[in-house]
Amino acid sequence: MYILITGGTGFIGTALCQELINQGHYLTVLTRQSLTAQEAVSYCQNLADFQDLNQFDAVINLAGEPIFDKPWTDQQKQKLLSSRLNITEQLVELFHKSEQPPHTFISGSATGFYGDLGFTKKYDEQTACGTKFPALLCQQWEETALQAESSQTRVCLVRTGIVLGPTGGALQKMLPLYKFGLGGKLGNGKQHWAWISRNDHIRTILFLLNNKQSQGAYNLVAPNSISNADFNQQLAKALKRPAFFNVPSFLLKLGLGERSQLLLDNQPLIPQRLMDEGFEFQHHTLGEYLSNTFLSIK
User: Fold this and answer.
1) pLDDT recorded at residue 241
2) What's the CATH class of domain 2-297?
3) Which helix (H) or strand (E) holds 156?
């Protein structure tokens, strides 16, 4: 396939692009970086370079300003929103201008769509949207992407949880603390984190790309979410380090403001639609992932 990718130079995008190349696909990557084109990869810096998308079979849209890196001032919230909506709107417009548009549009979202959930059950893609900033951000992002849907194009929305990998993402920020024995639970530790290995995240995108029946929203999370307290203990055990520290909720809220909800919200999510469609996860539980795949972090 000929595939256009936005966000192809980040933690997830870099590995995804390499896997797509390995499978024989040809990529055009939207990036502001000056990179040397490879045999199967070309780069562009502006979607204005395209009149339409007729030359592509699929589009994968992962672009967006990192949500956790900076305080959520009004200005930063607008930047987070614009970085997602502007590119998605431009892509939708190009879909509409195409006589033969790409057959598949895979567009990013996040489990922040759901906000803080209850403790009585596990939640799937039928769960309603939350009401706080991350939820409204994801909702607008998804609604924009769905405008590309037509009889010629199917749209898949990927609601991504915490992506784990040894060389980046959330663990890159956590590991230094744990290696120095400064790890610990956040708040009361009862909140569930919806996580997924980077390898499974990439495999789910490839699954959605190749499964012509797939469309709509998908939770890109492992089948088994984990409480923050258990996450803390299992990561500490894998690193053979103590993890006795505890950061109270009020300190997280004081230090991080609204961003603290990304760490404290309870999200016992399951990837129901992926499981229903036959996707097979390689990593079902965090303990199995850490012990079998993540030995390099030691």
Assistant:
1) 87
2) alpha beta
3) strand 154-160
